[in-house]
What we know:
The structure is a homodimer. Chain A is α/β, with parallel strands linked by helices.
Amino acid sequence: MSIINKAAAIGGGVIGAGWVARLLLNGIDVSIFDPDPEASRKVGEVMKGARRAYKQMVPSGLPREGKLTFAKTIAEAVADADFIQESVPERLDLKHRVLAEIDAHAPANAIVGSSTSGIKPTDMQVAMKKHPERLVVGHPFNPVYLLPLVEIVGGEQTFPEAIEVAKEMYASIGMKPVVIRKEIEAFVGDRLLEAAWREALWLIKDGICTVEELDDIMRYGFGLRWAQMGMFQVYRVAGGEAGMRHFMAQFGPCLKWPWTKLMDVPEFNDELVDLIATQSDDQAHGLSIRELEKIRDDNLVAIMDALSKQNKGKGWGAGALHKDYTKQLAKLAAKKPTASKAAEKAKAGKPVKKAEKPKKKKKG
Amino acid sequence: MSIINKAAAIGGGVIGAGWVARLLLNGIDVSIFDPDPEASRKVGEVMKGARRAYKQMVPSGLPREGKLTFAKTIAEAVADADFIQESVPERLDLKHRVLAEIDAHAPANAIVGSSTSGIKPTDMQVAMKKHPERLVVGHPFNPVYLLPLVEIVGGEQTFPEAIEVAKEMYASIGMKPVVIRKEIEAFVGDRLLEAAWREALWLIKDGICTVEELDDIMRYGFGLRWAQMGMFQVYRVAGGEAGMRHFMAQFGPCLKWPWTKLMDVPEFNDELVDLIATQSDDQAHGLSIRELEKIRDDNLVAIMDALSKQNKGKGWGAGALHKDYTKQLAKLAAKKPTASKAAEKAKAGKPVKKAEKPKKKKKG
């Protein structure tokens, strides 16, 4: 199993900071680069929320946190990292500049993951002159420190070995890697999200419902199903004794009915933005983003914890993973002395192995 | 608050039987009509599953179950009902025949709910010659006995008062009614589901992922979010300190990117059905539909129970409702003697008030 010894995060927005939080809480040192003068405060806020959630997950005590360093350049951030996660805005020119810089200065054996929600790795890795073969998309879901899913996508130049190592590295920090079989824009998660989002915009724009009503329709309805089984297995069960074929025969024809507006894209103008933003303010019922964030995190921890006790105690889906993850964190906490300066120093001085290509490392 | 004194269910498939289970477990007598010779066995199976789930929800003991009667005709089933739920297959001609029959024989003040996933009530109520004004769509989500959501939609002839009474009746059996503001095909829930389903079929057909991988992407990722906050509030929080407007500005443009295949419909041929059915078999890992159903129900109860303890103990979303619902069931159980034949008889003989139009009834 490949593990992460030293990580670098390029970009400290909501997603980048979420990665930083997950890594630090797993006891891994992280060097971050973000030109935003507010970066330190923003990462601190995310870290505070993540620490709070993890304390609920592992009441017996958390592992010693990794050390966070703010680097002045990308070169400095990636210098001794074996895992680098890029989370800069979704512009191909920016991704190219950042990845070229990472590639030029990172150890040759480091894995480079991109948080992009939709850009194809093949289109990004052309900017990497030295080792394009170690780029993978590692697309997470917000909040990164809690949601386990990471979509792994390789480009034309990506080595299968790099995908394997990335998979193990993400799994080592409690995640559920799903390798996408063929490279397409937006991969799988964001295709489904975009489809629903586009339809949702139509429904709001046409006054069929408000954002609060639409959200309620999700969270009192199919959202509860999808937290534990995806749509295919849900439909398999819904098919009753006759199963999937019966379900498909029954619902196949609706595809031809006028049940969606998907043939067109709503115009994304100020009026629509205003409508949605205003309705969203109403929906919040005075709760601040920070308060909503806490509620969201508490809910996610509670759901995963509840699922961890299902399936005859073996746990189910994200709950089974959650069970293993919290056990792993507790074990790590038991092993390491809490906040030992000496241990930190010793760790910082540990040499990082270098190699020409990504290769599997055995857990120490 | 209008409550249901005596219910009729027309159609006993997965959805119809789910309604029967919810009603009976709330202590309400139900008369069902379904021409399927297997109907009794099938409803019995669903009832067994529902009873099992409800026992977990209310460990202190369930209310005395309502009495289930199998009627030989629609006329017999609806004769003394004040709430009638139609759950026959999605064919307009069939809906017309069934609704005409219900309308001809039901008490004038009875509310008629249709479980249709997408047919407009205006198109259905033309078949009701006596009281089309009391038809509403009451679209539930499977499993009906557990998922709280019911979309209520009125047609052109529906009285606002009927919508109000229906809303109260559904709420009285632990549901979350959401009234859809404008009548459209497939309402809100199934528009979102259709959008995601259509995209999912493309992803499977094109070999981007298998049904198991797609399901994992949902249940380890955004499914966990949607069980407690819908997409708009999730995105509000994801926008970070800048909130919804920031999020919209950032993600608005992706609508124009080639992130979905939604402009077209995949051909629904045998090849696609085979591909999906085979992958679905693999995904089940040998678990039967019944076993999966139990797991699903246990998971749903556990998730709602977990959410009932959040938000400083007040409960959140479906969890807050679940808290009230389980309390209500426990209270009902404490009031009524268990399985008293005398009480059953007394109840069966109670006269049902009739009125010309749907009107609000006070809780007895």
